[in-house]
């Protein structure tokens, strides 16, 4: 008897159900060839949970997710829930899931497939294949914040009035555990780690830098470089193919990962993983949202979700299945199949514009 995996599937809203269905079909087809059984349990979160239970993240979803081997999420949100109370907005489900599962590392690969080079806004993008490792549960988004009134004056005599503050704070433990993920990832790849910080200004960044250079001595094979975040924003555009693993704090990672996503050009192609301690199920999801404008029309690009499932399988130690899914996606692209979001200059290229269902069938045929 082969192995079994229990996957919690949270389709969410908008195109979520279409893309998770597509990705699970591909996973089941790939797994069955390797005598691996995939059991799925569908859970509600986001707008779908608000409609059913009045809250975006029912306890049952967190509990069942915790019991699974891994969680696949589509996307949450949409105009239907734009006017609900801020505390129960669909997006609250994302934060709740991350903190409920203790996921502290967000991993976003940025790969530009040769077939989709035209999608990149960069002229000659070269071969882009890097990963951003973002700390997810610390830093300024979780630090002490508040507002107060001040009668003090600025040097030019202006009265301060209302003051608002957010605090960036990191512990050695929080930094070391994310750095370890980055160095270990680099060991399995091209063996280069770039730490992005603002060590010329921030005390927290100086701690990141000191801990990262200490850790780099444990990984002598890994080339270690540091970049200030402002410079990193430029270098990502200037020399994207030179990066392998980029590791950074929550705030800088939030901004740089969106910049990096844009380099790839097509939001429908980028997967992500959020990981916690060993033994905790990871959460795998495309980086895009619920695309309400095309929901239910068989137009959604399911590749980002399929590639998220490939990341899931690699994290579970099933490298072969992961590579098979990735190769089938590549083969489908090179045989000309495209959803409308990744159809560019297609003159003379034998492009077949198809919907979600047909492109999923093509991937399964290419496994
Ligand atoms: P979006 O990513 O949903 O869509 C942006 C554009 O990209 C749209 O034109 C959409 O049609 C297109 N697009 C996105 N994914 C696609 C795919 N797989 N295939 C084809 N086209 C695709 O971003 P948005 O419009 O800003 O947000 C829509 C909703 O999604 C909002 O409610 C937002 O809060 C939510 N959202 C959720 C997540 C998440 O669940 N992780 C992330 C971002 C946004």
What's the SSE blueprint?
Elements: E1 4-12, H1 16-32, E2 37-42, H2 47-53, H3 59-67, E3 70-75, H4 92-101, E4 105-111, E5 129-135, E6 145-153, E7 159-166, H5 172-187, E8 192-197, H6 203-216, E9 223-228, H7 229-238, E10 245-248, H8 250-264, E11 271-275, E12 282-286, H9 303-315, H10 319-334, E13 337-338, E14 352-353, H11 356-365
Parallel strand pairs: 1-2, 1-3, 3-12, 5-10, 8-9, 8-10, 13-14
Antiparallel strand pairs: 4-5, 4-11, 6-7, 11-12
The site of nicotinamide-adenine-dinucleotide (NAD) has 21 residues, from loops.
CATH class descriptor of the largest domain: Alpha Beta
Q: Low-confidence parts lasting 5 or more residues at pLDDT below 50?
A: none
- The CATH superfamily of the largest domain is identified as Isopropylmalate Dehydrogenase
Characterize the largest beta sheet: strand count, sense, and whether it forms a barrel.
10 strands, mixed
SS summary, helix count: 11
The succession of helices and strands, N to C, reads EHEHHEHEEEEHEHEHEHEEHHEEH
Q: How is the largest sheet built, in terms of strand order?
A: 2-1-3-12-11-4-5-10-8-9
Give the radius of gyration. 21 Å
CATH architecture of the largest domain: 3-Layer(aba) Sandwich
Estimate nothing, just give the exact number of structural domains. Answer: 2
Which small molecules are bound? nicotinamide-adenine-dinucleotide
CATH topology of the largest domain: Isopropylmalate Dehydrogenase
Structural class determined from secondary elements: alpha/beta
Mean pLDDT: 95
Strand content: 15-25%
The dominant shape is globular
Q: Please report the total strand number as a whole number.
A: 14
The helical percent reads 25-40%
């Amino acid at each position: 008897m082969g192995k079994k995996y229990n996957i919690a599937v949270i389709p969410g809203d908008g195109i979520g159900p279409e893309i998770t269905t597509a990705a699970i079909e591909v996973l089941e087809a790939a797994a069955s060839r390797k005598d691996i059984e995939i059991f799925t349990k569908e859970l509600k979160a986001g707008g779908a949970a608000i409609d059913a239970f009045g809250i975006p993240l029912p306890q049952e979803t967190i509990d069942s997710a915790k019991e699974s081997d891994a969680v696949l999420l589509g996307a949450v949100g949409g105009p239907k829930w734009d006017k609900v109370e801020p505390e129960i907005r669909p997006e609250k489900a994302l934060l709740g899931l991350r903190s409920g599962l203790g996921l502290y590392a967000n991993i976003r690969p940025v790969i530009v497939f040769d077939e989709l080079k035209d999608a990149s806004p960069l002229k000659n993008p070269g071969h882009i294949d890097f990963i951003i490792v973002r700390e997810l549960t610390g830093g300024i988004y979780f630090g002490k914040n508040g507002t107060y009134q001040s009668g003090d004056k600025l040097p030019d005599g202006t009265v301060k009035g209302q003051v608002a503050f957010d605090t960036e704070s990191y512990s050695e433990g929080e930094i070391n555990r994310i750095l370890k993920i980055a160095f270990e990832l680099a060991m399995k790849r091209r063996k280069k780690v770039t730490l992005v910080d603002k060590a010329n200004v921030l005390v927290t960044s100086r701690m990141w830098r000191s801990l990262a250079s200490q850790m780099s001595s444990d990984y002598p094979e890994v080339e270690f470089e540091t970049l200030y975040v402002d410079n990193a924003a430029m270098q990502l555009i200037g020399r994207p193919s030179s990066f392998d693993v980029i590791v950074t704090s929550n705030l800088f990672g939030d901004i740089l990962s969106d910049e990096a996503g844009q380099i790839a050009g097509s939001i429908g192609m980028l997967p992500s993983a959020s990981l916690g301690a060993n033994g905790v199920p990871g959460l795998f999801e495309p980086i895009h949202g619920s695309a309400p404008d095309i929901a239910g029309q068989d137009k959604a690009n399911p590749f980002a979700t399929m590639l998220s499932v490939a990341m899931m399988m690699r994290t579970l130690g099933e490298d072969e299945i992961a590579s098979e899914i990735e190769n089938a996606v590549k083969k489908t692209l090179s045989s000309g199949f495209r959803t409308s979001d990744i159809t560019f200059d297609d003159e003379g290229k034998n492009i077949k514009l198809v919907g979600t269902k047909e492109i999923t069938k093509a991937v399964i045929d290419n496994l």
